[in-house]
Amino acid sequence: MAEIALYQPDIPQNTGTILRMAACLGLKTHIIEPTGFLWSISSLRRSGMDYLDSAKIRRHPSFEDFLAEMTDHRIILATTKGACEYTSFNFLPGDILLFGRESAGVPDDVHAAADERIFIPMHNNMRSLNIAVSAAMITGEAIRQLKHASQG
Fold first, then answer.
1. Which domain, by its residues, includes 49?
2. Spatial CB neighbours of 80, under 8 Å, sequence gap ≥ 6
3. Is residue 117 part of a domain?
4. DSSP string, 136-149
5. Distance (Å, rounded) from C-alpha 121 to C-alpha 119?
6. Is the pTM of the predicted complex or chain greater than 0.90?
7. What is the pLDDT, as a whole number, of residue 124?
8. E strands within 1-67?
């Protein structure tokens, strides 16, 4: 199965929503610090509700620490500068779906460290979707592909 990683998330409500989704789907979520908010369950509780008690969360103090632990995984970065539409991308078991900061995405070194870069096509040159929506769309596609592959 795939896992989710959030690079220095800015907004606790979005983080809580993504953690809730991951808990419901049984997925691990990596939080790459620092966050743009004080990390506490109470700051995430409104959007994550009681699902946070079931969330599998791994916090990493830096991107370098995250990379050091993820050597056996492909890092798939969701970015408006991606090379492949997410629905055309071939997801593999163990992929880490990486999402950037709501305010600024990811810096060039993080972009360069990703194994692959995918994007969600936008109508009329719209800039981007909410990160929780993007995470749900891409995670759903990854799960669909991986479930189909395991049945085939």
1. 1-97
2. 105, 119, 122, 127, 128
3. no
4. HHHHHHHHHHHHHH
5. 6
6. yes
7. 86
8. 3-7, 28-32, 56-60
Provide the pLDDT for residue 107: 96
Please indicate, yes or no, if residue 114 is contained in any of the structural domains. Answer: no
Token couple for 51: 């699902």
Is residue 126 in some structural domain? no
Local mean pLDDT, 10-residue blocks, the chain (152 residues): 95 91 95 87 62 87 97 96 94 97 93 97 86 97 87 61
* Dist. CA 67–CA 133, nearest whole Å: 25
Q: What is the CATH number of the domain that holds 11?
A: 3.40.1280.10
What domain count does the chain have? 1
69 in a structural domain:
yes
Residue 58 Cα distances to 33, 45, 88, 152, angstroms = 11, 17, 29, 32
Q: What are the backbone angles phi and psi of residue 129, rounded to the nearest 5°?
A: -95, 165
